[in-house]
Amino acid sequence: MLNKYARAFFTRVLTPFAAFLIRRGVSPDTVTLIGTAGVVAGALVFYPRGEFFWGTVVITLFVFSDLVDGNMARQLGRSSRWGAFLDSTLDRVADGAIFGGFALWYAGRGDDTVLCAVAIFCLASGQVVSYTKARGESIGLPVAVNGLVERAERLVLSLVAAGFAGLHKFGVPGIQHLLPVALWIVAVGSLVTLIQRVVTVRRESAEAEAAEGRPEQGSGAAK
Q: How far apart are alpha carbons 130 and 153 in whole angstroms?
């Protein structure tokens, strides 16, 4: 839901910066790689130590590379299948690092098995939510549903909550509870989104099979 509005706004804001990088000879793929490396470093260096505020600051500085590289490609007129593949693949790596960092904290000094499991569920469900859409589109279905919690919502909820939770180390009382609440919201929202996409693919598949005049198959080809 956030994608439609947030992307349009930040695209306008980041266009001058993207143009500056182009003038400096930086390629969109380079921005993608550096941005992902920064997010992974911020998540896996700071989050497992409970440094949620500084980890979120570092991640936020790099997470906008996801918009900058696409903006650069459009300005250069060089949007490509390879660029789209690289961007999507590294998005999954960055997401995994963020929720993996949360899981490592709760598995270690955070000492909360339940929240560790919730963080792992957020990691796994986010990957599967993305896969359902990609897989549905790869077999020729439109997958015409966005879902309750997509990647933008997962990142905004978790990063904002983590950043504020980190203020507990600066003496703000009780604010550390924001992160567990956000993780539960992301977990439930991701599950709802997964169900929405599976139901949509099931319906679109049945409609496509009916339009082709043949019965729907019970199982697909080898994965």
A: 13
